[in-house]
Amino acid sequence: MCKKRTMPTPELKQLLLNDVLVDFTALKVKVAGRWCAVEAKQLMLLKLLLEHQGQAVPRDIIMDKIWPEVVVSDNSVSQLVTQLRKSLKDDKNTALFIRTVPRVGYQLIAQVSDAPTLLDKVTPATPRTSVLFITLGLIFGTIITLVSQYLLAPKAPSLNYEYQSRITSAPGAEVFLRYSPNGRYLAFSQSNEQQSQFDLAVYDQQSKTVHSIKNSGYSEEAPVWSPDGKWLAYFRYDPLSCDIRVIPVSNAIETWRLSPEFKLTRCQQRHGPTKLHWVDENTIYTTHWQDEQPRLVKYTLAFTPTPTLLEQQIVGDFKPITFDINKHNKMLLLEKDQGWFSVSEVDLTQSLKRTEIKRSRHSHAPLLFDSEDNYYWLGDDALRRYDYQGNEQLVHQPLGFVADLAVNPQTGDIAHAEGQARVNLYQIELDFTQDLPQIRNAVQLSSSARMDILPAVSPDGQQSAFISLQRRGITGFTHIEVWLKHKQRKTANLIATLPSDITPKYLLFSPNGDNVLLADEQQNVYLINTFSRRLVPIISGFEQLNAVHWSPDSHSIYYQVKKQQSTNEQAQWQDWRYDIQQMSNSLVADSVKFETLDEEHPLWQLNSSYLEHDLHLRTYLSAVLEQQLPLAQLLPSLELFKPAVFKHGIYYVLRQGHQLLLYCYLTEQKRNVFIKELGVYGYDIDINLNISSSTDGRQVVFSQVDGIETDILLHKAVKVVSP
């Protein structure tokens, strides 16, 4: 029988609530035989309810314990309780775990027990029991206990990884990694010294040699092997067009550079890192922009007498950021919806239904299937291997970031490209007194070994704030800081150092320039005073946040949040106000209309906090520029580089090949004006690039990628030896 527990101990690791097993150490719950990840704040709330078991815990105590020294609304508690109930599969109307005590708070009503072992169920021996049965019973009980502990414990990884060597050490970026089916060759794209294009290269593991396959003067990207290893397909970009081409590679590797090229089809000029996936002899998948969004496209091929495209079709309703397909025709898919990134598995041979595996506020690209079933890899800030139950195996923490990865299908070895990027800020001043805007002055605003991103210009154009980000340094930590640069001062000043759990999303100046709002990916908003240089949390705990904006006098901040009435009622929007002097939030109006673009809120008055901000910009620019620019080129560019709206126009960046070009669309004159080149950007590194402008459009600040350096590293897979 399970032992009753009334108070959790400091060593609390696992508990049984009714029939749900809670693992406080691993941040997981086991419901109906399946482990599911749980956020740390949910378990903090559960521990608080356990400490007051049998009593109703008031909402103000919950706010004080869960969000100490942070000003949050009462709705934060409701949201957190709803999330915990969802994790426990509890129904508010027929509660078995958490009961709502009207006008008081919440009470834990579940039966609380120690995590059970099957040894507890073994019947004690009586004096009449023979020694043999006692011995057998103890042995049997011990075996059952060990089995139950194995089943309850997180699954141990079947492979470990040991660093083996660095494969490349050339200037520029090595990305788009792909192993051949036999595991001998690793194909990749390598940028030239100017980083304006990619050449095609192959590393031979047998001879430990890198061979240059294509350096045509154009850009050859994203190589992929045919399933039989006899062909190599890739994108070939020039400044005006894109082709998908294939070459035969069944002869000696030294002769591959002389192989004839066969053009399969034209493709779109789009932003990377788009890959090709050759899943069987006659089928290649990639992405294609259609209806203002990325779509999954399938190419059907024939090879008689030469490689030829037979058919092209859009598959399903998927909107891939990136994806991978394994030999079983299972697709691993990364998509974004309302600020959340989801990793799902899709069976391409059946109903095309998504099965969500992981959900996060961070994109976690690149993404790749493992050589073992039910495992996959995620890159970016670290190299991690996951199973479908959410168990994580950290393999490698880079000094910079992980740009791409590939798994050897024969050995399970993992190759990845890691490196650093130099991202600086530049400011230009424009003169609008002429017929066309003219650049009067251009300066580099920042210069550091870090990445300076998310610039924001004050309404009067006198100040610029930005985020300085070091993804990973020698210390092994990520450093995020907020800096302020005044136009009349030579250097920028540090005004805030952010905690490691804050991922910045945008900055927003007050009209008088004395304060800056910082919003993160978790729907939290912080206030930074430019004089006192204090970071103060002011908005927290909401699932959806919209229309954060300053009052004209800079004394208040208005915003909208969603209020959940009950499980059967539709969520309603509320208007809230934060008072700078009182340092408090107050409800302005209940059940209000979702604030979006209308006659009272013209496009230039919106900012990045509006949920439909990006949609409005894409829709507007698509309509006014569709006769001048191909949408398949414009829309991916808007995803890569966020535009800036000012009173008389919109600054935006167009990507042509790897070249970035700054334009200004003047809304009153209905004219599209080229401003300047912003350099090259060969490979996306999952950072926020954007432009910011003063209200009159005369002062403009933008991020510029001044270089990406990556090398390819190899980690050897080693079978785990069971103890």
Topology:
Blueprint: E1 14-17, E2 20-23, E3 28-31, E4 34-37, H1 40-51, E5 57-58, H2 59-66, H3 74-88, E6 98-101, E7 105-108, E8 112-114, H4 131-152, E9 159-166, E10 174-179, E11 185-191, E12 198-204, E13 209-214, E14 219-225, E15 231-237, E16 242-248, E17 262-267, E18 277-280, E19 283-290, E20 293-302, E21 308-314, E22 322-325, E23 330-337, E24 340-347, E25 354-360, E26 367-369, E27 375-378, E28 383-387, E29 392-396, E30 401-407, E31 414-431, E32 438-444, E33 451-457, E34 463-470, E35 479-486, E36 493-497, E37 504-509, E38 515-520, E39 525-529, E40 535-539, E41 545-550, E42 556-563, E43 572-579, E44 584-592, H5 613-625, H6 631-640, E45 641-642, E46 644-646, E47 649-656, E48 659-666, E49 671-680, E50 689-693, E51 699-719
Parallel strand pairs: 45-50
Antiparallel strand pairs: 1-2, 1-8, 2-3, 3-4, 5-7, 6-7, 9-51, 10-11, 11-12, 12-13, 14-15, 15-16, 16-17, 18-19, 19-20, 20-21, 22-23, 23-24, 24-25, 26-27, 27-28, 28-29, 30-31, 31-32, 31-51, 33-34, 34-35, 35-36, 37-38, 38-39, 39-40, 41-42, 42-43, 43-44, 46-47, 47-48, 48-49, 50-51
